[in-house]
Every structure is written in C-alpha cells, then in structure tokens.
Design a protein that fits this description.
The complex is a heterodimer of chains A (416) and B (159). With 416 residues, chain A is an alpha+beta fold. Chain A has helices spanning 3-13, 15-47, 63-72, 83-90, 154-160, 207-212, 218-222, 251-259, 269-312, 314-322, 327-368, 379-404, 408-412; strands at 55-58, 81-82, 95-107, 110-115, 140-141, 149-152, 167-168, 186-191, 203-206, 231-232, 234-239, 265-267. In chain A, strands 1, 3, 4, 5, 6, 7, 8, 9, 11 and 12 form a 10-stranded mixed sheet that branches. Chain A is elongated and about 105 Å long. Helix content of chain B is 19%, strand content 39%. Classes of the chains: A alpha+beta (416), B alpha+beta (159). At the A-B interface, helix 8 of A face loops of B.
C-alpha cells in the first residue's frame, strides 16, 4: 500500500473528526476571506476616481454629506447655491466644464434628480465610460428632451418595473410622507444601461422641469427664466488636465478661493472619502481580528483532533513500525494528515467566502447600487491557502513528533 | 571607585535625557510646520496664533495672502487696507534699499473687494533676483494696527 493511500484510509477511517476539522477551518477561512474581499471592494467602490467627478461645487455644510448626496444618492444637500455663482466658477481657468443638478425629490424610495442633459453625453461615470441607452448595452429608449420626461437608472427600472411610456408623480422630498406633485405626471422615455455605480438607482428629469413642478411657488417657477434668482443644489465639475493627464494643480487654489466665499464650497471626493475610511478603519480591523481568531480556533481544534487521533492509533502505528515503516514515515503520516485537512479546509473556505460575498453583494447592490463581484480576487485569496497550510503543519507538529518517538514494544503489549 | 562610576552613570543619563529631549523638540518643530495652500513662506503677524502672511515670488511679482493663525492657514483673513507699502532690506545690508507697493487683488470667487480683501500683489524688477530679504510694513490686521514682517524665503515666526 502506498504512503498516500495509508493517509487517505486513515482520514476516512476517522471521517467524523476529519470532517469536523475541515469544516471548522473552512468556516474560519470563509469568514476571513469574505471580510477581506468585501472590505477591499468597498474601498475600491468608494474611492475609485471619485466616481468620475473631479470636484463638486456645493453649498456650505458637511463635505461628506455633499459627496454622499451628489455621488451616492444618499443623505440630503445642506442647502442651495446661486446659478450666478456657478457661472462664475465655470469661467475659472482650471474648470473645463460643469454639470448642474438639483436633488431633493424621490419616487417610490428612489431619488429623482433634475440634471443638465450634458450628464448623459459628457459625464464619465468611470474613466472613459459614458451612459448608454443602447439595447445592446442593456438600456432602453432615449434621453429626455422635454420638461415632462424622465429616464431611470437600470436598477431603479428593474425594481419598479419601469419601461418607456410609464408615468409617475415625483414626491417633493426624500422621506416617507412627503407631499406628492399630484398634478405633474412625468413620462419615462428611457432606461439607462447598467453602470455598476449608484447612478443605477436614480431617476433623472431635466434641470428646468424642476422649476416648473406645481406646488413649488411662483419664486421657484420664475427661476426657470430668471438666471439672477435661479438656484441649484450643486454641480459636477470637470477640471482641466495638464501633461500626462494629471489634474490641473490650480484645483487647490480654486478650492481655496471658493471655500472663502459665503455661498459655496468646492469638495474633492478623492480627499473626503479616504478620510472617512481612515476614521472608521478600526472597525475593519476589529472584524478582521474576529475572523482571524475564528480561524486560529479552528486550527486549535485541528491540533486537538490530531492529538486525540494519535492516542487512539498508537497500536496501529506501532504495527506499521513492525511491518517496516520507519520513524520518519510514521511522522510523515501525521504531518500529511494535518496538511491535507488544513489544505482542504482552506480551499473549501475560500469557496464559501466567495459565496458569502455573492450573497452579501446582492443585498448591498439592491440597497446602494454598488456592485460587489464574487469573482473578485482579494489579498486573502492569494495568501490564505499557504498560510493556513503552514499553520496546519504547525498544528500537526506536536502529534507528529509524538508519533516519531512512539515506542513499538510498549504499544504492542497485550491490552488485556 | 563605585561612587565615581555612579557619578559617571548619572551624568551620562542626564546627557542622554537632554539629547533625547532636544531631538524630540527638534522633531516636533519640524513636524509642526503649518501647511501652506499656495506653497509660499509663512510670516506670523504678531504671533503664530494670531495670523500669517503667506508670500510667494513668481518672476518679478510678489503675491501675498493673509491667512489664519495656528492651523487655520487654509482660511483667508481680509483686511481693510487698499495697498501695503513694504520697506525692504536685503541680507547683509543695514539700511532699507527698496520699497514695494502691494495692491489689493480681490478674489472674485471669494466675494472680495478692495477694502475687504485678503490677497495682495506687487511687481518690481529686483524681485527676479531677490535672494534673502526682510520686508516690513504697517497694516490693520483683525482691527488692530500691526507690524507686518516678511522674512523671505524662510518665513518669520517669533514664537
């Protein structure tokens, strides 16, 4: 009988303790793998190039609130800014273009944002990627052209069964119980192709149609014609580039100038979000610490299982020695059993971990529009298998040494 | 013999402590340099906590911004002066040799105007090869008459 056959037969003979050891290691590894994968993908989703936005011109208030509202359709804008101020900022030598928007409305729990139509042609939701309505990309219909038209993000359309031709009445607010514009039926004319960004969860109407919605009062309606009195929630700004595509260094001077005004502030998403993660980074560490502890406990269980298996098999191992097996062979048997269980547990755990990411990712996608891929290869995927195997070998070291030092005569003595 | 050894040990310990403290203080001084939005040199007005004048020289033009004290160097402080007349003394010379007038340059996006402005600018040919100099003027900063002292290019901090 070959060496590996003996190992496998031994593992099968003690199938219950083998299975329990493998499953417990798999659970610990799955937890660690899924936590690392979700953590890395969260960081990537929230810090990737500011989701296509160099800077956001917004009202005075919390920069984080502005970023969450403008990019992730969460929270509310802390105020409004004047259209005339926005136009002044556009004339700055470092600003290439701007896309003004107004937030604050909703429909069936999804945000309804009024936005300039350039959003659908010139805005890059990810570097080099523009919105599409093409059926080949998963979209439908077209971008709006009239005041009573709207388009929906892919996820919003899927969950609300939106197709071109359907109508809705926007709610004036984002909370349950806010008044509905009952006299303003707006028709969906398009569904955007999926982007994997929070824009999939939003509904968009033309900027000027916001001012004409009934119930906003004469002053707001006048804003549609009168630029002097017009207000917006904010604007996405594209900053000019210098050589090698580097963002114009004047953005910091622009930020300084705007932030000194009483009217507005310039928020750079790539500065705000990393700061947020550095504040809450300790939460990640605690969760990862727990996952690591679970994995170590599983390996401790493996150690105990091997030790108790050795006690039961002393006579068997002594017989093997009598049949010609050397001390090193017997030691190798123990180490290989440990190696096999830890490797199997780690491999199974990585698989489980990706399943957890798939399930968790679905929940997160439905709630936020952010996509988490089960196929994402995280740092844990690269290191967890060799590390767990190494730790498994360490767990098997003591039983292996005991097997090496096993006394043949002593363990072959009659039991009764 | 043991007494002498003990004395030597005590002196060595005190020296080590002193050295470590000095190094730590030096480190803290280096680490404590305030950030500058325009990458200029900061010159305290009165004291570091009161406010600063950030100065850069770009070719033959001196640009100056009045900013906050302490860590608030990213916040502008407006003054009512329409212009600032600097008296300049170059390194190695005892008497002032140049005058430079900085005119208010209101930042439109910051809603500034002349008489309520934080940035000033002035040009002179000698600025191109300025080297080290000290420039002094009197301004009204935060409602009080203050001496503005610019030590270029290292900055000025009396604290």
């Amino acid at each position: 009988m070959k060496f590996w056959q003996i190992v496998l037969k031994s593992l099968c003979h003690h199938w219950l303790s083998t299975a329990l050891a493998v499953i417990s290691i798999a659970l610990g590894v799955a937890l660690l793998d899924s936590v690392v994968s979700l953590r890395e993908q969260t960081h990537r989703n929230f810090t990737q190039e500011g989701l296509g936005v160099d800077a956001i011109l917004g009202p005075k208030g919390s920069p984080l609130q502005i970023v969450l509202n403008a990019l992730y359709h969460l929270e509310e804008m802390p105020g409004k800014i004047k259209w005339t101020y926005y136009k002044k900022v556009l004339y700055s030598e470092v600003v290439e273009s701007g896309i003004p928007f107004i937030t604050g409305h909703s429909y069936a729990g999804f945000r309804v944002n009024a936005i300039d139509e350039n959003f659908f042609t010139s805005f890059e939701y990810l570097p080099g990627r523009h919105f599409s309505f093409a059926p080949a990309d998963g979209g439908q219909g077209r971008v709006f052209s009239g005041n009573k038209e709207a388009v929906a993000g892919h996820e919003a359309a899927r969950l609300l069964n939106i197709t071109p031709g359907k109508t809705f009445n926007p709610t004036c607010g984002v909370n349950a119980g806010d008044p509905v514009h009952v006299n303003d039926a707006i028709t969906f004319v398009g569904v955007m192709a999926p982007t994997g960004t929070p824009h999939d969860r939003a509904i968009y109407i033309p900027l000027k149609s916001f001012y004409s919605l009934g119930g906003h009062g004469g002053e707001v309606q006048e804003m549609a014609q009168n630029e002097e009195h017009r207000e917006i929630s904010g604007a996405y700004l594209k900053i000019k580039r210098i050589r090698n595509g580097v963002i114009h260094p004047g953005i910091q001077d622009l930020k300084y100038s705007i932030n000194q005004s009483s009217q507005a502030q310039l928020v750079i998403p790539n500065e705000v979000l990393p700061r947020l993660f550095s504040i809450i980074g300790w939460v990640d560490l605690v969760i990862m610490g727990i996952a690591l502890l679970v994995t170590l406990l599983a390996l401790l269980f493996l150690f105990i299982a091997l030790l108790s298996a050795l006690r039961e098999r002393r006579r068997d191992l002594a017989l093997l020695r009598c049949l010609g097996a050397t001390r090193r062979t017997v030691m190798g048997l123990m180490l290989c059993e440990s190696l096999f269980m830890s490797a199997a547990g780690a491999a199974l755990g990585i698989g489980f971990g990706h399943v957890i990411v798939f399930i968790g990712g679905e929940f997160i996608r439905v709630e936020t529009g952010l996509r988490f891929s089960a196929a994402y290869v995280s740092t844990a995927d690269l290191y967890i298998l060799p590390v767990v195997i190494l730790l498994g070998l360490l767990a098997g070291a003591v039983p292996a040494v005991q097997a090496y030092r096993l006394g043949v005569l002593k363990n072959l003595a009659p039991i009764s | 013999m043991f007494k002498k050894q003990t004395e030597k040990l005590v002196i060595a310990a005190v020296l080590m402590f002193g050295l470590t403290t000095a190094m730590t203080a030096a480190e803290n001084t280096k680490e404590g340099a305030h950030k500058t939005i325009h990458h200029g040199c900061l010159n305290a007005i009165g004291s570091c906590e009161n406010g600063h004048a950030e100065v850069i020289i770009d070719g033959n033009t001196m640009k100056l911004w009045f900013v906050g004290g302490g860590a608030d160097t990213d916040k502008s402080v407006r003054i009512g002066d329409n212009e600032i007349t600097l008296t300049v003394t170059f390194e190695g010379q005892k008497t002032a040799v140049e005058k430079l007038v900085l005119a208010a340059k209101p930042d439109e996006l910051a809603e500034e105007k002349v008489g309520d402005c934080s940035s000033f600018e002035g040009s002179a040919e000698w600025l191109k090869n300025a080297g080290k100099f000290v420039a002094v003027a009197t301004i009204k900063f935060k409602g009080k008459s203050r001496t503005l002292r610019i030590e270029y290019p290292n900055g000025y901090d009396p604290d």
